[in-house]
Amino acid sequence: MSRLTLQGLAADGPLLSPVAAGVWRLDEWGFDDAALAAWVEHAIALGITTFDHADLYGGFRCEALFGRWLKANPSRRDDIQLVSKCGIKPPDAARGWRVKHYDTSAAHITASVHASLQNLGSDHLDLLLIHRPDPLLDTDEVAETFERLRQAGKVRHFGVSNFSPAQYALLASRTRLVTNQIEASLLHLDPFIDGTFELCQQQRIRPMLWSPLAGGRLFDAGTKPALAAELQRLAGEYAVSAATVALAWLLRHPCRPLPIIGSRKLSALDDAAAACRLTLAREDWFALLQAARGTEVA
């Protein structure tokens, strides 16, 4: 089976793998150094070379855990792409944070990037995202901060996560953004109807998708029996897993989304790679949409 190839995220954006490996639960996986290396190397061998992080994942531990592998294998840095996010401050007495809040100030963004680079063992991030829309986000301040980080060589490209179309458009009016990382799956159809995917096509950017398999609930007959049954039926027809079908359904959209797979199982990486090679027939795509919505299109 051929290896996946890198694809542009936007016209002048980074080259990323067509699906990404998410590490937000890395601290829960119980990997020792050998198991982590095996997981990372398996992903790379498939062509899944983009790794999605955030500063706060695992209580601010996951980047450093992944960094143990990269620091032991520095020659691998040019073979992978590192994405990280910042801006969320959960309650943390040790850090002096009393309530959960967002911080998109220049000082916090800059400090977060420096901490991520130190933890990951890299001199740059390929892509930095603002993790959540901040009601106090100053667009000019963020744009200026992004430019300073770009000029310093610390971050090569910038985007956002969980932004509405209007929030995205506002920040994009001040600085070049290359993606919006959002939740989307057959159980979370909002981006298909709220203007998010339309804006992505208009801006010619590809969205990144978190929870593309809805945490596995897609395959639970108790959640949406008709959807689980249709996924299994199509899995049989296409001779792939149900997860591959569900991911191929997302990949079929013309905005060319980039799903993020967050599983410790090597087979989950295999399923994701297989989805990149599967094109669902249009009628099968609509059959899944109908099963997910519980009604046919109007």
Tell me what you see in this structure:
This is Aldo/keto reductase. With 298 residues, this protein is an alpha/beta fold. The chain has a domain at 31-178: TIM Barrel (Alpha-Beta Barrel), CATH 3.20.20.100. It contains 12 helices and 12 strands. It has helices spanning 33-46, 57-60, 62-72, 106-120, 139-151, 165-172, 190-193, 196-203, 225-238, 242-251, 266-275, 282-293; strands spanning 7-8, 15-16, 20-22, 50-52, 81-86, 88-89, 101-102, 127-130, 158-161, 180-183, 208-210, 258-261. The protein has an 8-stranded parallel barrel with strand order 3-4-5-8-9-10-11-12. The protein has a two-stranded antiparallel ribbon with strand order 1-2. A hairpin with a 6-residue loop joins strand 1 (7-8) and strand 2 (15-16). Helix 9 (225-238) packs across helix 10 (242-251) and helix 9 runs antiparallel to helix 12 (282-293). It is globular, with a radius of gyration of 19 Å. The relative contact order is 0.13.
